[in-house]
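FW: tagging you since you asked about this chain on Friday. Here's the raw sequence from the shared folder, copied in full. Didn't touch anything.
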Amino acid sequence: MPANPVRVLVVDDCEEATQLLASVLGRRGHEVRVAHDVEAALQIAQEFTPEVALLDIMIRCESGFFLAQRLRELPGLDGCRLIAMSGFELEQHRELSEASGFRSQLRKPIEPVGLFEAIEGVDH
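HL: got it, structure written out here
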């Protein structure tokens, strides 16, 4: 179990993926909310104020880069750690990821160890 559980927002248009990640993170002691599109993610983020947001790069006709920028505009989320997720090679998106505020990138399928390292590496 982590020493300091964190609030995590998981955003992916694949419901199975969000539920699996939420379950794994919840069993680890983290408080998790899920969203399957940009608008739901923004609404949840305003109410939940996540410390970490796991964002799929391609979310139903939108981009995770766009969502990252929108999250940064919300009050209280300037310190939220943004983590990109993708089934594609993320190296080609590195510059755009950094410009959008992502601090980490995880390639799907996500291994639990890499997930925990990315989530629990948050400064409190």
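FW: The chain has one domain: 7-120.
HL: agreed, and The mean pLDDT is 89.
FW: great, closing this out.
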